[in-house]
Fold:
Amino acid sequence: MKAKEALLYEKLSHKMVHCHLCPHDCVIPEGKTGYCGVRKNSDGTLYALTYGKVVSIAIDPIEKKPLNHFYPGASAFSIGTFGCNMRCKHCCNWTISHHTATEEGLDLHDLSPEEAVQMAKDRECEVLAWTYNEPSIWFEFVLDTAKLAKEAGLLTVMVTSGMISPPALKTLLNYIDAYRLDIKGFTEEFYERLTGSPVLKYILENALIAFRSGVHVEIITNIIPNWNDSDEQLNGLARWIVENLDAETPWHVTRYHPENKLTEQPTPTETLERAKEIGHKNGLKYVYIGNVPGHPGQNTTCPECSKVLIDRKGFSIGENHIHKGCCQFCGYKIGHYRGPDKPVKDHTTPFPEYIL
Ligand SMILES: [Zn+2]
Structure:
């Protein structure tokens, strides 16, 4: 596939370019890439190196994203490429996410937006998901694919750490149905230590933008022992979600496993149970324990009558007792629930596209 010129950048003097895609706000000299490693300045023009380049393709249950209140049981045609604009010490996909500029050592496939959508349809997936690496830095490809996916009647899901500039995010959100956002912790110091950059304020701003746009939002926090498992961090984050999004926003607290540069032991189940309790104490109605197969904290429970509405075993689900967005047993309205009998609506106030 021919190299694709990037969107959202400015040409500067001396063949420099200024990329406006994410908060890193890179000024990139000729011949170099930005922090993400996948947007390269060649002779004064910025190119999106990963446009139409796919490293991973899989059909995943939507529960694996994880999304628990969005079309439970749906199949998500999931695609990802390489590169990232964070350098998380515990990244489980670091072999692709921390790969930069060169395609060497990667099993890359060409895939056009048209082909991606057609493959999802052919495989009878309801959902197209950009995942595995950070889709924000795949901006041009995600945008083109998302537009076609919506025309083809697919649901669209971004699995993201939220490192994107607000204009770029708003442009994408016009075509996105669910935004699964990673808020990794609750202090700038923690973000800097774990990801290499103190960018929490940008992530929180983007959470607000996505939430207020009417897109379905679920938040995930991977709990790492001694890093972000203090009562202070967990209370801070849970309170922030309740006060700035709402009490019905699902929050996934997931077990960490040692990966990449972190060697701490896996998160004890008790820590995740404490995090769930902290979430509920702060008012959150749906807090899920993830990466602990068989744990009852994976189930969706009615906040009113306490009955199990969706029983989850790993990524598979039992019967769904949510009917038209309400508890089948007591009629309680389950917030932020989307499914075949309660479909997503078109966004009421589309954002203007910000394409420089
Ligand atoms: Zn109920």
In short: The chain has a mean pLDDT of 93. The chain is about 25% helix and 25% strand. Residues 302, 304-305, 307, 327, 329-330, 332 surround zinc ion (CB under 6 Å). Residues 130 and 251 are 20 Å apart (CA to CA).
